Amino acid sequence: MAKATAQAIDQFLPGKYSFQLFDPMPTIAASTYKRLSSQMQQLYKFTYEATNTPLISSFIHDITNLTSTDKLVTYFKKVKPDLVITNNCFITTEMNTALKKAGSKAKTVVLFADPFTPHETWFSYTSADLYLSSTPEVAQLALDRGTPKDKIRVVGWLTRSEFLSGPTDKIIARKSLGLDPAKFTIFIGGAGQGGGKIFDICEEILNRRNIVKNCQVIVNSGINPGLTHKIMKLAQILPDFFYIIPLAHNMQTLLSAGDLVVGKAGPNFLFEAIHTLRPILATGCLPGQEEGNLEFIKRAKIGWVQEDPIRAAALIEKISTHPNLLSGFLPQLKAIKSDNLNTAQNIASEIDKLMR
Question: 162-339: which CATH topology?
Fold first, then answer.
Protein backbone atom coordinates (compact mmCIF):
# COMPACT_ATOMS: atom_id res chain seq x y z
CA MET A 1 0.00 0.00 0.00
CA ALA A 2 2.90 2.35 0.68
CA LYS A 3 4.26 1.74 -2.82
CA ALA A 4 0.81 2.18 -4.35
CA THR A 5 0.38 5.49 -2.51
CA ALA A 6 3.69 6.83 -3.80
CA GLN A 7 2.82 5.65 -7.33
CA ALA A 8 -0.60 7.32 -7.13
CA ILE A 9 0.86 10.70 -6.16
CA ASP A 10 3.62 10.47 -8.75
CA GLN A 11 1.13 9.46 -11.46
CA PHE A 12 -1.01 12.57 -11.05
CA LEU A 13 1.71 14.95 -9.82
CA PRO A 14 4.72 13.70 -11.81
CA GLY A 15 8.05 14.87 -10.50
CA LYS A 16 6.56 17.19 -7.90
CA TYR A 17 7.40 15.05 -4.87
CA SER A 18 10.10 12.52 -4.07
CA PHE A 19 9.45 9.52 -1.83
CA GLN A 20 11.21 7.20 0.55
CA LEU A 21 9.62 4.08 2.02
CA PHE A 22 10.60 3.08 5.55
CA ASP A 23 9.44 0.34 7.90
CA PRO A 24 10.49 0.99 11.51
CA MET A 25 8.77 -2.09 12.95
CA PRO A 26 11.08 -4.69 14.54
CA THR A 27 11.61 -7.88 12.52
CA ILE A 28 9.88 -9.97 15.19
CA ALA A 29 6.64 -8.07 14.56
CA ALA A 30 6.34 -9.37 10.99
CA SER A 31 7.23 -12.96 11.91
CA THR A 32 4.79 -12.94 14.85
CA TYR A 33 2.00 -11.55 12.67
CA LYS A 34 2.69 -14.18 10.00
CA ARG A 35 2.57 -17.06 12.49
CA LEU A 36 -0.54 -15.83 14.33
CA SER A 37 -2.50 -14.98 11.20
CA SER A 38 -1.75 -18.22 9.35
CA GLN A 39 -1.27 -20.88 12.01
CA MET A 40 -2.93 -19.62 15.20
CA GLN A 41 -6.07 -17.87 14.02
CA GLN A 42 -8.10 -18.48 17.18
CA LEU A 43 -5.33 -16.90 19.25
CA TYR A 44 -5.19 -14.06 16.73
CA LYS A 45 -8.95 -13.55 17.07
CA PHE A 46 -8.75 -13.57 20.87
CA THR A 47 -5.87 -11.10 20.88
CA TYR A 48 -7.54 -8.83 18.34
CA GLU A 49 -10.84 -8.69 20.19
CA ALA A 50 -9.31 -8.44 23.67
CA THR A 51 -7.20 -5.43 22.70
CA ASN A 52 -9.86 -3.70 20.58
CA THR A 53 -10.72 -0.99 23.12
CA PRO A 54 -9.57 2.64 23.35
CA LEU A 55 -7.87 2.10 26.72
CA ILE A 56 -5.87 -0.98 25.74
CA SER A 57 -5.06 0.52 22.34
CA SER A 58 -3.56 3.54 24.08
CA PHE A 59 -1.47 1.18 26.23
CA ILE A 60 -0.28 -0.67 23.10
CA HIS A 61 0.92 2.63 21.65
CA ASP A 62 2.86 3.28 24.86
CA ILE A 63 4.71 0.00 24.25
CA THR A 64 5.29 0.52 20.52
CA ASN A 65 6.58 4.02 21.25
CA LEU A 66 9.43 2.30 23.09
CA THR A 67 10.20 -0.13 20.24
CA SER A 68 9.81 2.11 17.19
CA THR A 69 10.37 5.74 18.12
CA ASP A 70 14.19 5.73 18.27
CA LYS A 71 14.46 4.26 14.75
CA LEU A 72 11.99 6.86 13.52
CA VAL A 73 13.84 9.74 15.18
CA THR A 74 17.13 8.67 13.57
CA TYR A 75 15.45 8.32 10.21
CA PHE A 76 13.62 11.67 10.38
CA LYS A 77 16.80 13.50 11.35
CA LYS A 78 18.55 11.98 8.34
CA VAL A 79 15.78 12.42 5.75
CA LYS A 80 14.19 15.67 7.00
CA PRO A 81 10.75 14.92 5.51
CA ASP A 82 8.15 17.55 4.66
CA LEU A 83 5.36 14.98 4.92
CA VAL A 84 5.00 11.59 6.61
CA ILE A 85 2.22 9.22 5.48
CA THR A 86 1.55 6.16 7.62
CA ASN A 87 -0.58 3.14 6.71
CA ASN A 88 0.37 1.24 9.87
CA CYS A 89 -1.86 1.45 12.95
CA PHE A 90 1.25 1.06 15.17
CA ILE A 91 2.97 4.08 13.60
CA THR A 92 0.57 6.93 14.41
CA THR A 93 1.26 8.41 17.85
CA GLU A 94 4.76 6.97 17.39
CA MET A 95 5.22 9.04 14.23
CA ASN A 96 4.13 12.18 16.06
CA THR A 97 6.43 11.56 19.03
CA ALA A 98 9.40 10.87 16.78
CA LEU A 99 8.86 14.01 14.70
CA LYS A 100 8.82 16.14 17.85
CA LYS A 101 12.02 14.52 19.14
CA ALA A 102 13.64 15.03 15.75
CA GLY A 103 12.69 18.72 15.79
CA SER A 104 10.68 18.26 12.57
CA LYS A 105 7.61 20.24 11.55
CA ALA A 106 6.60 17.75 8.87
CA LYS A 107 2.91 17.36 8.16
CA THR A 108 1.33 13.98 8.89
CA VAL A 109 -1.23 11.81 7.09
CA VAL A 110 -2.90 8.63 8.33
CA LEU A 111 -4.11 6.29 5.57
CA PHE A 112 -6.48 3.72 7.10
CA ALA A 113 -5.49 0.30 5.73
CA ASP A 114 -8.67 -1.58 6.69
CA PRO A 115 -11.89 -0.81 4.80
CA PHE A 116 -14.57 -2.08 7.19
CA THR A 117 -13.44 -3.31 10.62
CA PRO A 118 -10.30 -1.42 11.70
CA HIS A 119 -8.75 -1.96 15.13
CA GLU A 120 -9.03 0.75 17.77
CA THR A 121 -5.27 1.37 17.54
CA TRP A 122 -6.01 3.32 14.34
CA PHE A 123 -7.94 5.96 16.28
CA SER A 124 -5.67 6.69 19.26
CA TYR A 125 -4.00 9.57 17.41
CA THR A 126 -6.38 12.37 16.43
CA SER A 127 -3.89 15.16 15.68
CA ALA A 128 -2.66 14.27 12.19
CA ASP A 129 -3.09 16.91 9.48
CA LEU A 130 -5.15 14.57 7.29
CA TYR A 131 -6.93 11.21 7.51
CA LEU A 132 -7.68 9.23 4.34
CA SER A 133 -10.36 6.55 4.51
CA SER A 134 -11.36 4.02 1.87
CA THR A 135 -14.96 3.78 3.07
CA PRO A 136 -17.59 5.97 4.77
CA GLU A 137 -17.83 3.34 7.53
CA VAL A 138 -14.23 3.85 8.67
CA ALA A 139 -14.52 7.64 8.30
CA GLN A 140 -17.51 7.55 10.66
CA LEU A 141 -15.59 5.43 13.17
CA ALA A 142 -12.74 7.96 13.11
CA LEU A 143 -15.23 10.78 13.65
CA ASP A 144 -16.86 8.92 16.54
CA ARG A 145 -13.44 8.48 18.19
CA GLY A 146 -12.72 12.21 18.17
CA THR A 147 -10.96 12.82 14.88
CA PRO A 148 -11.89 16.31 13.59
CA LYS A 149 -14.41 16.10 10.75
CA ASP A 150 -12.59 18.64 8.58
CA LYS A 151 -9.51 16.42 8.52
CA ILE A 152 -11.22 13.23 7.26
CA ARG A 153 -11.57 12.45 3.55
CA VAL A 154 -13.23 9.38 1.97
CA VAL A 155 -11.07 8.59 -1.08
CA GLY A 156 -11.94 4.96 -1.95
CA TRP A 157 -9.79 1.83 -1.85
CA LEU A 158 -6.37 2.17 -3.50
CA THR A 159 -5.75 -0.63 -5.99
CA ARG A 160 -2.70 -1.05 -8.21
CA SER A 161 -3.04 0.85 -11.48
CA GLU A 162 -2.92 -2.24 -13.71
CA PHE A 163 -6.30 -3.31 -12.33
CA LEU A 164 -8.15 -0.11 -13.14
CA SER A 165 -8.51 -0.45 -16.91
CA GLY A 166 -9.16 -4.20 -17.23
CA PRO A 167 -10.07 -6.88 -17.07
CA THR A 168 -8.03 -8.50 -19.81
CA ASP A 169 -10.15 -10.66 -22.09
CA LYS A 170 -10.24 -14.09 -20.41
CA ILE A 171 -9.40 -15.98 -23.62
CA ILE A 172 -6.36 -13.79 -24.26
CA ALA A 173 -5.28 -14.11 -20.62
CA ARG A 174 -5.57 -17.91 -20.69
CA LYS A 175 -3.63 -18.22 -23.94
CA SER A 176 -0.86 -16.02 -22.53
CA LEU A 177 -0.59 -18.40 -19.57
CA GLY A 178 -0.65 -21.55 -21.68
CA LEU A 179 -4.08 -22.59 -20.41
CA ASP A 180 -6.97 -24.13 -22.30
CA PRO A 181 -8.97 -21.10 -23.51
CA ALA A 182 -12.27 -23.01 -23.48
CA LYS A 183 -12.22 -24.57 -20.00
CA PHE A 184 -13.98 -23.13 -16.95
CA THR A 185 -11.12 -21.65 -14.92
CA ILE A 186 -10.90 -21.34 -11.16
CA PHE A 187 -8.37 -19.05 -9.44
CA ILE A 188 -7.47 -20.12 -5.88
CA GLY A 189 -5.17 -18.04 -3.69
CA GLY A 190 -4.50 -14.34 -3.32
CA ALA A 191 -3.04 -14.41 0.21
CA GLY A 192 0.60 -13.31 0.32
CA GLN A 193 1.44 -15.81 3.06
CA GLY A 194 -0.62 -18.59 1.47
CA GLY A 195 -3.54 -18.45 3.89
CA GLY A 196 -7.22 -19.04 3.18
CA LYS A 197 -7.36 -22.88 3.26
CA ILE A 198 -5.72 -23.07 -0.18
CA PHE A 199 -4.45 -26.64 0.21
CA ASP A 200 -7.70 -27.89 1.75
CA ILE A 201 -9.73 -26.45 -1.13
CA CYS A 202 -7.36 -27.90 -3.75
CA GLU A 203 -7.51 -31.30 -2.07
CA GLU A 204 -11.31 -31.27 -1.92
CA ILE A 205 -11.90 -30.26 -5.54
CA LEU A 206 -9.88 -33.29 -6.68
CA ASN A 207 -12.74 -35.36 -5.23
CA ARG A 208 -15.28 -33.59 -7.45
CA ARG A 209 -15.60 -35.43 -10.76
CA ASN A 210 -17.27 -32.59 -12.68
CA ILE A 211 -14.56 -30.12 -11.65
CA VAL A 212 -11.76 -32.49 -12.62
CA LYS A 213 -13.40 -33.25 -15.96
CA ASN A 214 -14.42 -29.75 -17.01
CA CYS A 215 -12.17 -27.24 -15.22
CA GLN A 216 -8.62 -26.02 -14.80
CA VAL A 217 -7.26 -24.40 -11.66
CA ILE A 218 -4.78 -21.56 -11.16
CA VAL A 219 -3.22 -21.82 -7.68
CA ASN A 220 -1.38 -18.84 -6.19
CA SER A 221 0.42 -20.25 -3.13
CA GLY A 222 2.13 -17.00 -2.11
CA ILE A 223 5.38 -16.64 -0.17
CA ASN A 224 4.95 -20.05 1.44
CA PRO A 225 7.41 -22.72 0.23
CA GLY A 226 5.79 -25.42 2.37
CA LEU A 227 2.38 -24.82 0.81
CA THR A 228 3.84 -24.68 -2.70
CA HIS A 229 5.53 -28.04 -2.15
CA LYS A 230 2.30 -29.61 -0.90
CA ILE A 231 0.33 -28.30 -3.89
CA MET A 232 3.01 -29.60 -6.27
CA LYS A 233 2.76 -33.07 -4.74
CA LEU A 234 -1.02 -32.87 -5.04
CA ALA A 235 -0.69 -31.85 -8.69
CA GLN A 236 1.16 -35.08 -9.46
CA ILE A 237 -2.15 -36.92 -9.03
CA LEU A 238 -3.62 -35.10 -12.01
CA PRO A 239 -1.08 -33.45 -14.32
CA ASP A 240 -2.26 -30.39 -16.28
CA PHE A 241 -5.11 -29.71 -13.82
CA PHE A 242 -3.26 -27.25 -11.57
CA TYR A 243 -1.33 -24.21 -12.85
CA ILE A 244 0.83 -23.31 -9.81
CA ILE A 245 2.16 -19.78 -9.24
CA PRO A 246 3.97 -19.09 -5.93
CA LEU A 247 4.88 -15.36 -5.87
CA ALA A 248 2.75 -13.70 -8.58
CA HIS A 249 3.84 -10.56 -10.42
CA ASN A 250 1.04 -10.82 -12.99
CA MET A 251 -2.00 -10.99 -10.70
CA GLN A 252 -4.17 -8.96 -13.04
CA THR A 253 -3.66 -11.53 -15.82
CA LEU A 254 -4.19 -14.46 -13.45
CA LEU A 255 -7.48 -13.08 -12.12
CA SER A 256 -8.64 -12.12 -15.62
CA ALA A 257 -8.03 -15.70 -16.76
CA GLY A 258 -10.41 -17.04 -14.12
CA ASP A 259 -14.18 -17.32 -14.19
CA LEU A 260 -14.37 -17.60 -10.40
CA VAL A 261 -11.97 -16.25 -7.77
CA VAL A 262 -11.58 -18.28 -4.57
CA GLY A 263 -9.58 -17.26 -1.51
CA LYS A 264 -9.17 -15.42 1.77
CA ALA A 265 -11.02 -12.11 1.82
CA GLY A 266 -8.11 -9.78 2.46
CA PRO A 267 -8.92 -6.21 1.36
CA ASN A 268 -6.36 -5.94 -1.46
CA PHE A 269 -7.32 -9.32 -2.92
CA LEU A 270 -11.02 -8.49 -2.55
CA PHE A 271 -10.78 -5.20 -4.44
CA GLU A 272 -8.49 -6.68 -7.09
CA ALA A 273 -11.18 -9.29 -7.79
CA ILE A 274 -13.75 -6.49 -7.96
CA HIS A 275 -11.65 -4.49 -10.43
CA THR A 276 -11.28 -7.62 -12.59
CA LEU A 277 -15.07 -8.01 -12.43
CA ARG A 278 -14.78 -11.55 -11.07
CA PRO A 279 -17.22 -12.92 -8.45
CA ILE A 280 -15.41 -14.10 -5.35
CA LEU A 281 -15.94 -17.15 -3.18
CA ALA A 282 -14.44 -16.16 0.16
CA THR A 283 -13.13 -19.14 2.11
CA GLY A 284 -12.27 -17.17 5.23
CA CYS A 285 -10.56 -14.07 6.58
CA LEU A 286 -8.36 -12.91 9.41
CA PRO A 287 -10.74 -13.22 12.36
CA GLY A 288 -11.71 -9.86 13.81
CA GLN A 289 -9.65 -7.72 11.46
CA GLU A 290 -11.23 -8.83 8.17
CA GLU A 291 -14.67 -10.08 9.23
CA GLY A 292 -16.21 -6.92 7.84
CA ASN A 293 -14.93 -7.96 4.40
CA LEU A 294 -17.07 -11.12 4.51
CA GLU A 295 -20.11 -9.07 5.47
CA PHE A 296 -19.36 -6.68 2.61
CA ILE A 297 -19.31 -9.56 0.09
CA LYS A 298 -22.71 -10.71 1.31
CA ARG A 299 -24.22 -7.23 1.56
CA ALA A 300 -22.90 -6.03 -1.80
CA LYS A 301 -23.90 -9.33 -3.48
CA ILE A 302 -20.59 -9.81 -5.30
CA GLY A 303 -20.04 -13.47 -4.47
CA TRP A 304 -20.30 -16.17 -1.84
CA VAL A 305 -18.88 -16.86 1.61
CA GLN A 306 -18.19 -20.49 2.51
CA GLU A 307 -15.50 -21.24 5.06
CA ASP A 308 -15.90 -25.02 5.15
CA PRO A 309 -13.59 -26.58 2.48
CA ILE A 310 -15.93 -29.49 1.71
CA ARG A 311 -18.94 -27.23 1.21
CA ALA A 312 -16.80 -24.74 -0.69
CA ALA A 313 -15.73 -27.50 -3.11
CA ALA A 314 -19.37 -28.52 -3.57
CA LEU A 315 -20.28 -24.91 -4.31
CA ILE A 316 -17.42 -24.58 -6.80
CA GLU A 317 -18.70 -27.71 -8.57
CA LYS A 318 -22.20 -26.26 -8.72
CA ILE A 319 -20.94 -22.94 -10.12
CA SER A 320 -18.69 -24.60 -12.71
CA THR A 321 -21.60 -26.77 -13.84
CA HIS A 322 -23.94 -23.76 -14.03
CA PRO A 323 -21.66 -20.81 -14.99
CA ASN A 324 -24.71 -18.63 -15.61
CA LEU A 325 -24.78 -18.20 -11.82
CA LEU A 326 -21.85 -15.81 -12.18
CA SER A 327 -23.51 -13.29 -14.47
CA GLY A 328 -25.87 -11.98 -11.79
CA PHE A 329 -22.97 -10.42 -9.89
CA LEU A 330 -21.65 -8.33 -12.78
CA PRO A 331 -23.77 -5.15 -12.26
CA GLN A 332 -22.75 -4.89 -8.60
CA LEU A 333 -19.08 -5.51 -9.41
CA LYS A 334 -19.13 -2.79 -12.09
CA ALA A 335 -20.78 -0.33 -9.71
CA ILE A 336 -18.24 -0.87 -6.92
CA LYS A 337 -15.36 -0.68 -9.38
CA SER A 338 -16.72 2.62 -10.70
CA ASP A 339 -16.92 4.01 -7.16
CA ASN A 340 -13.21 3.26 -6.59
CA LEU A 341 -11.72 4.13 -9.99
CA ASN A 342 -10.56 7.61 -8.94
CA THR A 343 -8.93 6.68 -5.62
CA ALA A 344 -5.37 7.34 -6.79
CA GLN A 345 -6.33 10.75 -8.15
CA ASN A 346 -8.29 11.53 -4.97
CA ILE A 347 -5.29 10.72 -2.78
CA ALA A 348 -2.92 12.76 -4.94
CA SER A 349 -5.32 15.71 -4.88
CA GLU A 350 -5.74 15.63 -1.10
CA ILE A 351 -1.99 15.35 -0.51
CA ASP A 352 -1.31 18.24 -2.87
CA LYS A 353 -3.92 20.43 -1.16
CA LEU A 354 -2.36 19.69 2.20
CA MET A 355 1.17 20.49 1.03
CA ARG A 356 0.06 23.71 -0.63
Answer: Rossmann fold (3.40.50)
